[in-house]
Amino acid sequence: AQSVTQPDIHITVSEGASLELRCNYSYGATPYLFWYVQSPGQGLQLLLKYFSGDTLVQGIKGFEAEFKRSQSSFNLRKPSVHWSDAAEYFCAVFNAGNNRKLIWGLGTSLAVNP
Amino acid sequence: DGGITQSPKYLFRKEGQNVTLSCEQNLNHDAMYWYRQDPGQGLRLIYYSQIVNDFQKGDIAEGYSVSREKKESFPLTVTSAQKNPTAFYLCATMEEGEKLFFGSGTQLSVL
Fold first, then answer.
1. Long-range contacts at B9-14 (CB < 8 A, ≥ 24 apart)
2. How many CB pairs under 8 A join A and B?
3. Residue A68 C-alpha, separation from nearest chain B C-alpha, in angstroms
4. Around A30, how many Cα atoms within 13 Å sit in the side-chain half-sphere?
5. How far apart are CA A48 and CA A33, in angstroms?
6. How confident is the model at residue B2 (pLDDT cuts 50, 70, 90)?
7. Smallest Cα–Cα separation from B49: which of B17, B18, B76, B74?
8. Residues of chain B found within 8 Å of residue A98, distances taken between Cβ atoms
9. pLDDT digits over A47-103, tens only?
10. Facing A46 at nearest CB: one of B31, B50, B100
């Protein structure tokens, strides 16, 4: 069965430090992968997506993610975190064979210390 | 100004009452989705619609109903059969390329 795992429920980093949020997926075919961000009490916003081609994808707000097929991973990174990056981050994989549904991870909550 | 409008932002339900959450979009997207979000449980799909006058149950459809009479509108009714309705509800549309656009959500609470 298709699934997405975000191993870290909560992460705290200092402002200016680098960040890596982990995402592992289970999917039989070539996956369409996404990272979304959610501020408290708000909807989600797409950070970046991977469909094919270059395995390192750039997104908004200075984020990037790398697709590694051998590790079934799609980790999100940012070189220097800003206080405004504190939010909930969700990884998702698109199930093309199931009526265009996204399969979601449970999210990682990011806190940023000043 | 294109987007998705969810209303109300906060909603309270009395026991035995049905309540309807509104979702309107002007993005001209065919596909629309309703998600429920509980703390620590991520997003769970309630219902989705690929086209007008058609919709399918998601993973947690029991106690909910929807309609899709217009492309722009996809209201969700939380019925009295839903015994634990307190949650944050998110409406979304999907454009070509499988990108989801989300509304700002409705927080439903039980009185």
1. B9/B104, B9/B105, B9/B106, B9/B107, B10/B106, B10/B107, B10/B109, B11/B106, B11/B107, B11/B108, B11/B109, B12/B108, B12/B109, B12/B110, B12/B111, B13/B78, B13/B85, B13/B108, B13/B109, B13/B110, B13/B111, B14/B110, B14/B111
2. 54
3. 21
4. 5
5. 9
6. low
7. B74
8. none
9. 999 988 899 999 999 999 999 999 999 999 999 999 999 999 999 998 877 666 889
10. B100
Q: Residues 27-46, chain B: which have Cβ within 8 Å of A?
A: 31, 40-43, 45
- Are the Cβ atoms of B43 and A104 closer than 8 angstroms? yes
Residue showing tokens 């690929």: B50
Side chain identity, residue A63: F
